[in-house]
Design a protein that fits this description.
The protein has two domains: 188 residues, 2-Layer Sandwich (Fructose-1,6-Bisphosphatase, Chain A, domain 1), CATH 3.30.540.10; 125 residues, D-Maltodextrin-Binding Protein, domain 2 (3-Layer(aba) Sandwich). The chain starts with 13 loop residues before the first helix and ends in a 5-residue tail after the last helix. The protein is globular. It has nine helices and 13 strands. Helix 1 runs antiparallel to helix 2. By secondary structure, the protein is α+β, with helices and mostly antiparallel strands. Helix content is 29%, strand content 20%. The protein binds 2,5-anhydro-1,6-di-O-phosphono-D-glucitol and manganese (II) ion (2 copies). One manganese (II) ion binds next to strand 3.
């Protein structure tokens, strides 16, 4: 074959990538393949509903009523239940927890309990759906710490540094599945004609420094002075450091962090006088994204300590989030710690 071959060098599906990744680790049991495959199936089912969101008013609600006449479910509830149902029977998990449910989600009695724990934000940025803005699903996997039987709170309340895998799905102009098992961060784009995720972003590496900051600046008046000074610094003119930075804020964390991972820069959701711990949830949002960003060469803190080293004490606790390129995070920390003014 000539070197001008029209074929891509390699066609790698998500499935192949996971299996080949597992094979390269001696002792791997293949459990991740099943787990991640379950997540990718759930993602495709959610995507199918998300793409119909704009048609609800045109098609009416009848086609989306079930036989018992229940009214249409909110998409985040749909996503929540779809993920649970795609994962509850596989035998890999002993417990799940989701942003949409106050309590732990146990595995039904007729299915086996496995050795992993799944935490997820079924639909992140759901307030953006009606405006056709990118939203997504975020997930996080831990190994259980209890020996057997149904998983407990102890299995769930682990530090983020104990994650064994994390990922997110983006429902945007295309659908993407991004994951890491600690060996690089890899992105796949759905080819809708065949229903397969194909490797499109191999081994994502964040730029060491960017020129974009992302924060809800409407809250500025409630921020600590150090935070106000940091953002003011980013807006000052200085050619050498690429300032002023550009401001970008989608309002869907998963999309803002995805952009930050590809283009570099920083995303902040600080605490403020009204919400001292900010808005984002440590277990479903901050930890999985911090795990991915670190695996791509970036960093994340709550302003004081590394996000992944925070000991969670309750399922739905919130934590401030600073996440981004290594150099941007270094400068942000200097401001937040009062070493720069
Ligand atoms: P969710 O839709 O899962 O509740 O998350 C919403 C979050 C997050 O996606 C986003 O970054 C943040 O809310 C935006 O908050 P503000 O509107 O306060 O900026
Ligand atoms: Mn969210
Ligand atoms: Mn959500």
């Amino acid at each position: 074959m000539s070197s001008q071959t029209p074929f891509p060098a390699k066609l790698i599906t998500l499935e192949r990538h996971i299996i080949e990744g597992e094979r390269s680790h001696p002792g791997a049991t293949g459990e991740f393949s099943g787990l991640l495959h379950g997540m990718s199936l759930a993602a495709k089912l959610v995507w199918r509903e998300v793409t119909k969101a704009g048609l609800v008013n045109i098609l009416g609600r009848t086609d989306r009523m079930n036989i018992s006449g229940d009214v249409i479910k909110k998409l985040d509830e749909f996503a929540d239940q779809t993920i649970y149902k795609a994962m509850d029977h596989l035998g890999h998990l002993c417990v799940m927890a989701s942003e949409e449910n106050e309590d732990l989600l146990h595995i039904p009695e007729n299915y086996p309990n496995g050795k992993y724990v799944l935490l997820y934000d079924p639909l992140d940025g759901s307030g953006n759906i009606d405006a056709n803005v990118t939203i997504g699903t975020i997930f996080s996997v831990y190994r259980r710490v209890t020996a057997s039987g149904p998983g407990t709170m102890e299995d769930v309340l682990q530090q983020g540094n104990q994650q064994v895998a994390a990922g997110y799905v983006l429902f945007g102009s295309s659908m993407m599945f991004v994951y890491s098992t600690g060996h690089g961060v890899h992105g796949f784009t759905l080819d809708p004609s065949v229903g397969e995720f194909l490797l499109s972003h191999e081994n994502i590496q964040m730029p060491r420094k960017g020129t974009i900051y992302s924060v809800n600046e409407g809250n500025e008046g409630r921020w600590a002075p150090a935070m106000q000074r940091y953002i003011r610094y980013l807006k000052e003119e200085d050619k050498e450091t690429g300032r002023p930075y550009s401001s970008r804020y989608v309002g869907s964390l998963v999309a803002d962090v995805h952009r930050t991972m590809l283009y570099g820069g920083i995303y902040c959701y600080p605490g403020d006088t009204k919400n001292p711990n900010g808005k984002l949830r440590l277990m479903y949002e901050n930890n999985p994204l911090a795990y991915l960003v670190e695996a791509a060469g970036g960093a994340s803190t709550n302003g004081e300590k590394r996000t992944l080293d925070i000991q969670p004490t309750s399922l739905h606790e919130r934590a401030p989030l600073f996440i981004g390129s290594a150099e941007d995070m270094r400068i942000a920390q200097e401001f937040l710690h009062g070493k720069r003014t």
